[in-house]
Amino acid sequence: MPKKILFIEDETALQKTLGEVLIQEGYEVISALDGETGMELAETKNPDLILLDLILPKLNGFEVLEKLKENPATKNIPVIILTNLEKMEDIGKAMELGAKSYLVKSNYSLEEVLKKIKEIIEN
Amino acid sequence: MNFKETIEELNVSAFCRKYNLSLWQCPQFLFIIMGIIVIISSLSFYFIGNRYVEDPLEVAFLVLLISLGLLIIGTIITKSFEKVAEASRLKSEFINIVSHQLRAPLSNLQWTLELIMSGRVGTIEKKQTEYFLILKENSARMQELVGNLLIVARIEGQKLLFKNEFFPLKQAVNDLIKEFEPYATASNVKVIIEAPDDLPQVYGDSYQIKLAVENLLDNAVRYIKDQGEVKISIKKEKDYVYVEVSDNGVGIPENDKKYIFQKFFRSENALKNKTQGSGLGLYIVKSIIVKSLGQIGFFSEEGKGTTFWFTLPINKFKK
């Protein structure tokens, strides 16, 4: 059974590029283009890892993260924040809410992001 | 400040034109007018009081009238300052928003290019790779520029956060040199470091200070034509650490020296040698060093090379 990754990101271009790489690496990718759909899918599909953007329609990334960690069904799923916000306060807030890792998109290449994902999902 | 700069400072109308303000809204001009009024009115009171006035109430009334005038001018000056400050704030905010908005499409572009070039979505021919490389380099340049603009916006908005701690500068510089090695080797430049092992730790934000050294190192390598050497030497002096980054590159022309730390300034040599850059690097470096309570300067001779130096405290300071 391939491991499932839920990718909550409103940029379709990123969904396509990173999604493609993840599928090639043997993961099953579930996509959500807004926070609300992301929350629903996290509950129903029981993914092994969640990739979460912070600026999202409907529910923003912080709200999604907070709800995920409050819900007993989803609180143990590791969450990697994948965003372009790099303010210290945003990083601090996300880590405090229980994110496993915080990656600023423009500072990482696709391969580096893949490496981080593998590290976390395989453990 | 030398004589020429003092005269330039006195050229009020040029100053007001530079900030797009009319003379009657320009703080510098209004200050001069206020000064003149104060001098004239003091002298007038003296003469009027001495010769013509018998009733002190009349003098008090005159003083009141003049004070009222000064109060009005003072208010206008304050408003003008507010206008200048607001314009500066809007500009920084504009840079901030634009840079953030540019980041998302740039990341998309970079990741898509990386995916294509990795061969994961089909093989690409050698000839095509060359052109994809051009795209990749240029998107990286844009990323760098946007990153620099964001740092500048933060510096100007006083939002550049510093996480101060003690850290080993020599090790940080060594790591940086390692990261730079492929670029330096490709540019035929040798980077060496000279620093004693018993160097004390410096106090500051290691990330920001590394960024400053990275900018200086990048400049040094960039301005060396053909082949050369960049030397970074670090030593302890009194209660600070002194760092020099020297190159044997093209040097800075005499006329450009006073503008070198200005934002967006590009030296004649940079343009002549078609060196890439945004003119933001040294502005960022200076802002970081000054914020770390250090000092910075340089000496340079055209055709021979440039040495940038800076100092960093080794004791804890309070902000």
Overview of the structural elements:
The complex is a heterodimer of chains A (123) and B (319). Chain A has 5 helices and 5 strands; from the N terminus they run βαβαβαβαβα. Chain A is of the alpha/beta class and 123 residues long. Chain A has a single domain, classed as Response regulator (Rossmann fold, 3-Layer(aba) Sandwich). A 5-stranded parallel sheet of chain A has the order 2-1-3-4-5, with helices on both faces. Chain A is globular and about 35 Å long. The two termini of chain A are 16 Å apart. With 319 residues, chain B is of the alpha+beta class. Chain B folds into 2 domains: 160 residues, no CATH class; 149 residues, Histidine kinase-like ATPase, C-terminal domain (Heat Shock Protein 90, 2-Layer Sandwich), CATH 3.30.565. In chain B, strands 2-4-5-7-6 form a 5-stranded mixed sheet. Chain B has a two-stranded antiparallel ribbon with strand order 1-3. In chain B, β4 and β5 form a beta hairpin. The longest helix of chain B has 62 residues. The model of chain B has no long low-confidence stretch (mean pLDDT 83).
CATH architecture verdict of chain A: 3-Layer(aba) Sandwich
Spatially, the strands of the biggest sheet of chain B line up as 2-4-5-7-6
Helix fraction of chain B, binned, reads 55-70%
Question: Which two protein chains have the largest interface (Cβ within 8 Å of the partner's Cβ), and how many residues from each?
Answer: A-B, 16 and 19 residues
Low-confidence stretches of chain B: none
Number of helices of chain A: 5
- Average pLDDT over all residues of chain A: 92
Report the C-alpha radius of gyration of chain A, rounded.
13 Å
Low-confidence stretches of chain A: none
How would you name the oligomeric state of the polypeptide chains in this document? heterodimer
On the 0 to 100 scale, the average pLDDT of chain B is 83
Strand content of chain B: 5-15%
N-end to C-end Cα span of chain A: 16 Å
The name of the CATH topology of chain A is Rossmann fold
For the record, give the distance between the C-alpha atoms at the N and C termini of chain B, rounded to a whole number: 28 Å
Overall shape of chain A: globular
Helical/strand content category of chain B = alpha+beta
Number of strands of chain B: 7
Look at the structure and name the CATH superfamily of chain A. Answer: Response regulator
